[in-house]
Input
Amino acid sequence: MQKIIKIIILFIFLFVIGIFYISLTRDTNYNTSNLINKETPEFKIISFDNSNSYTRDDIKKNNYTLINFWASWCAPCKIEHPILMRLSQTKNLVILGINFKDKESQAKSFLSELGNPYDLLAKDKNGKQSVRFGVYGIPESILINKDLMIIQKFVGPLSFEDYNNIIKIIE
Output
């Protein structure tokens, strides 16, 4: 009987060590490269003012669309905002801003204070739409062409290097 208990304890010990080893060797980095060159998922998202909704058909009309997930409470969103303002002045690019889990009054105040770079403005109050796009946190931006293919995904705030890359792609 004691021999069986020792074998069971040894088995449990080896099992725990095995699980621990697997978790240590697993790559947990957030990698979105698998989304590049894939078609944009189906979506229907309500406009910020509740007047209508946007779907893939709305962005299909544009040569390029940059979908930007943002919130007023997000400090990195403030950092990238000047870059979005610069991008909003370029031709060939429509920017769809999706306000993520935010209070409407604070989002309006954010845009009033810093400017509104968005051609289309929508909201994702419960975060369900962001999941469709593989968004884990904000800010995140996704560059899409008129064929609804994801060209590039930007995790974190857009940088001037990202700005230059976007300009190169859309021109």
Summary: The mean pLDDT is 88. The first strand starts at residue 44 and ends at 46.
